[in-house]
Design brief:
Strands 3-4-5-2-1-6 form a six-stranded mixed β-sheet. The chain has a single domain, classed as Beta Polymerase, domain 2. It has four helices and six strands; from the N terminus they run αββαβββααβ. The longest helix has 17 residues, at 45-61. A hairpin with a 6-residue loop joins β3 and β4 (77-81). By secondary structure, it is an alpha+beta fold. The protein has helices at 3-16, 45-61, 92-98, 100-103, and strands at residues 20-26, 36-42, 68-70, 77-81, 85-91, 108-111. α1 crosses α2. Helices cover 37% and strands 29% of the residues.
């Protein structure tokens, strides 16, 4: 599965859990660490955990396993590293604070519906 299809699958899983403002950032031309960042917010801790679980489930079903996951069930920012696609799940407040879309402005920001 190519990285764009992985990003599409992850975005769909997040949308199924009602993630807020799902964005993909194509960083393939500005970084060697990955092709895409997927960024999404949750309105509460339970939703953040559900989003993480759904991404993990859908990727596992497609025989893709996370290289690493940073954060725990109480974290307000979870990073899931699938090598070519890195998923950042935030509380709404943390997303505003860290502002990855600004930091990675040299990448191409894509609305999830356009993947």
């Amino acid at each position: 599965m190519d990285s764009r299809e992985m990003a599409r699958l992850i975005a769909k899983a997040l949308d199924d859990k009602k993630a807020i403002d799902i964005k993909a950032i194509d960083i393939s031309n500005v970084s060697v660490m990955a092709d895409y960042f997927i960024v999404a917010s949750a309105s509460n801790q339970s939703q953040l955990n559900a989003m993480q679980d759904e991404v993990d489930r859908i990727m596992y079903e497609n025989n893709i396993h996370a290289k690493s996951i940073e954060g725990n069930r109480q974290s307000t920012w979870v990073l899931m590293d699938y090598e070519d696609v890195i998923v950042h799940l935030f509380s709404e407040e943390d997303r505003l604070f860290y502002d990855l879309e600004r930091i990675w402005k040299d990448g191409i920001i894509i609305d999830a519906s356009d993947l």
